Amino acid sequence: MSDIKFGTDGWRARIAETYTFNNVRRVTQGFAAYLQVHELAHKGIVIGYDQRFSGELFAEAAAEVLAGNGIEVWLTDHNSPTPVISYSVVEREAGGAINITASHNPPPDNGFKVRDPFGGAIAPAGLLEIESYIPEELAEIKRLPLAEAEETGQVRRWDPDPAYIAHISKLVDLERLRHAGLKILCEPMWGNAAGWFPRLLSGGNNEVVEIHAERNPTFPEMHRPEPIRPNIDVALEKAIEIGADVVLINDGDADRMGIGDENGAYIDQLRAFALLTYYMLEVRGERGPIVKSISTTDMLKGLAQLYNVPLYETGVGFKYIAPKFLEVDGLIGGEESGGYAFRGNVPERDGILGNLYFLDLMVRTGKKPSELVAELFEKLGQAYYYGRIDTRFPSAKRPEARTRIDAARPAEIAGLPVTEIVTLDGYKYVLGDHGWLLIRFSGTEPVIRVYCEVPDEALVEPVLQGGMELAGLA
Hints:
Elements: E1 11-14, H1 21-37, E2 45-49, H2 55-68, E3 73-76, H3 82-92, E4 96-100, E5 109-115, H4 124-133, H5 146-152, E6 155-158, H6 161-169, H7 174-178, E7 183-187, H8 196-201, E8 207-210, H9 233-242, E9 246-250, E10 257-260, E11 266-267, H10 269-283, E12 290-293, H11 299-307, E13 311-314, H12 318-328, E14 332-334, E15 340-342, H13 351-365, H14 369-380, E16 385-392, H15 398-407, E17 412-413, E18 416-417, E19 420-422, E20 427-430, E21 436-441, E22 447-454, H16 460-470
Parallel strand pairs: 2-3, 2-4, 3-6, 7-8, 7-9, 12-13, 12-14
Antiparallel strand pairs: 1-5, 4-5, 9-10, 10-11, 14-15, 16-22, 17-18, 19-20, 20-21, 21-22
Helix pairs in contact: 1-2, 1-4, 10-11, 10-13
């Protein structure tokens, strides 16, 4: 037995160490109790899973527990992207979802995400409530054997893909994209986006090439299925080799995205967020609030001012972004990790739709990815450069590190004046007109992150090193 705590997005742990079948059953029983208290159990629950080790078996274990609690289950009949599962909640009019995935975590991990009736992340108060219902004893878990549950119709397997495809076809013109005449390299990172873009974008005059599309839970040629360098370096090299016009990248469960340009260069996730916002405001001509986490780009502040739309800032994670997105009827919402939500879709990250929107931006402007970045900077009046350092950091040492950082009140970092310190989530040092530095503990794994965004590429390394010194990591 172990304590189960939800982090930034769900509960994640090492398979066979803490992430066991019994612990999956325990947390499912806690979620079942939550559903019953909130009168959602009668609506049924969607369950999906990713390509990680035994994902389908963990999903079946969760289905048995929900069935044992008298809750109807729609269990996907194959691995499904997280955005497909999230949309299925709305399409099925279900009470929520369970998704067996560790997203971008290292290969030994698996995870357990929960979703609300809108298909979005459950707010922090709800997650604490679910934790409080997780039983200590296995005897408290109700289970109905899967074969019996399927025979009685308590658990039904179904294909969620057609409804999702019909949905996104109303948001973006897939026929126009199929006839874009582009060479598109797809990097699903051995995950749930495999096969999706060839399926959506073929049939016209595109050439769609896919790599790392098989199931392999060891994630070869990358440290983890996170759509940032160095994990995507093989894809960027392949783009140069085949002369691709663009690289569409997704993380392991396909709720996050990344972009490689026609030169094999990575368009970082802050620039991607700003470009998608620019696409919504300038190219599509839409208006509405922007919702961003504290860890992402100030380019959004510039775009909000230029187009006279509201901007809201939250803590890191869609458990903060999704409720605010719903509250203000957001146009676009997102975070530094490459996850973005869009109006008209569920209030959740969608890496498939995000990549399609980026393609649509290219097609409707007739510009290459690198040209779009240049156009964005020209619009904003300056360039923006981003960097991040992740360091393994034992959870037991966090209180000591927090005490040290709390006590630090630097007047400057890397010679740049600190004009404000924001503690909404972590420690963000505003550097006047010279950008920002953020120090924050990961909510999904034992890692401390140091991030920065600055207007001069030469400042990235010294500002990051200044953050490492403040965190006691230099």
